[in-house]
Amino acid sequence: MILAVGSGAKPGTNVETCPICHGTGKVKKNQSLAGFATIQTVVACENCRGTGKIIPTPCEDCKGKGTVRKQVKLKVDIPAGIDNDQTLIVEGKGEPGKNGGPYGDLYVTVRVKKSNIFTRNGDNVECTIPITITQATLGADIKVPTVTGEEVNFSIPDGTQSGTKFTLKDKGFKKIRSTSKGDLVFTVQVQTPKKITKEQRELFNELAKTMNEQPPVKKRGIFG
User: Fold this and answer.
1) SS3 of 82, please?
2) Given the DSSP bridges, would you call strands 37-44 and 16-17 parallel, antiparallel or unpaired?
3) Which of 8, 86, 158, 218 is deepest in the core (most CB within 10 A)?
4) Running DSSP on this structure, what letter comes out for residue 137?
5) In this predicted structure, what is the pLDDT of residue 7?
6) 174 CB-near residues (< 8 Å, 6+ apart)
7) Are residues 22 and 65 part of one domain?
8) Whole-angstrom Cα distance, residue 154 to residue 169?
9) Is residue 2 part of a domain?
10) Angstrom distance (rounded) from CA 95 to CA 104
């Protein structure tokens, strides 16, 4: 909501100068003290309520107030890298000042919609990338999504373990009031297939015969 400002007079009519204060909005008032002294003070004019103007024919919409509330849309530039709950100040788009004073400012608090892929950590971006057993074992070229919508090619080395983190420099959020950017940190997650074909099972069995299927056990030292 925003206030639309006018003169307060009905269209086709004019605002007139107050005949009492002659447009100053103030009048002098004499006050007697104990019957032997008189002091003079300056007070707001009651006829025009201190505005210096009177409205013979008030506007039917605003009832002479000069302001009405309207629903408007404003275009606000959101800077790159802004975070959740940060506030922007749009100058001159707030409430109007009294008696023709300047408009105030509009404060816009940003709510950043959560992503199903990315998590923000300061100016860095984090995500999880699933890979297959063969990709983890043999190494592979994969495509990594970024917050800009582009995909970046990345080569993971052979023997990559599930939970390994990799970093793409300068692929995070732009730092506000700076040209530098954060990083994109992604964690690979090795996926085990739930269903395999008969041929694939036979291949896994042949592979198992050539490998020591017992994972290494760390030996405890003297101090545990």
Assistant:
1) coil
2) unpaired
3) 8
4) H
5) 65
6) 80, 81, 123, 180, 181, 182
7) yes
8) 12
9) yes
10) 5
Domain shared by 21 and 65, yes or no: yes
Same domain, 131 and 201: yes
* Inside any domain, residue 161: yes
Per-residue pLDDT, 117: 92
Strand partners, 190: 131
Query: What is the pLDDT, as a whole number, of residue 55?
Result: 80
Q: Write the CA distances from 94 to 33, 38, 71, 77, 173, integer angstroms.
A: 46, 45, 13, 16, 30
Based on the structure, what is the number of domains in the chain? Answer: 3
Evaluate whether residue 222 is within a structural domain.
Answer: no
For every one of its 224 residues, what pLDDT tens digit does the chain have, with 9 covering 90 and above?
Answer: 455 556 666 787 788 888 889 888 888 887 776 666 777 788 888 888 788 888 888 777 676 666 767 778 888 988 888 888 999 999 988 887 776 678 889 999 999 998 999 999 999 999 999 999 999 999 999 999 999 899 999 999 999 999 999 999 999 998 888 889 999 999 999 998 889 999 998 998 888 888 876 555 566 655 55
CA nearest neighbour of 89 among 109, 103, 70? 109
91 and 54 share one domain:
no
- pLDDT attached to residue 5: 57
The residue type found at 34 is A
* 139 falls within a domain: yes
Under 8 Å between Cβ of 204 and 152: no
Contacts for 5 with CB less than 8 Å, ≥ 6 apart:
66, 67, 96
The helix or strand, by DSSP H or E, that contains position 202, with its residue range, turns out to be: helix 198-209
* Domain limits for position 153: 119-209
Report d(CA 61, CA 25) in Å as an integer.
25
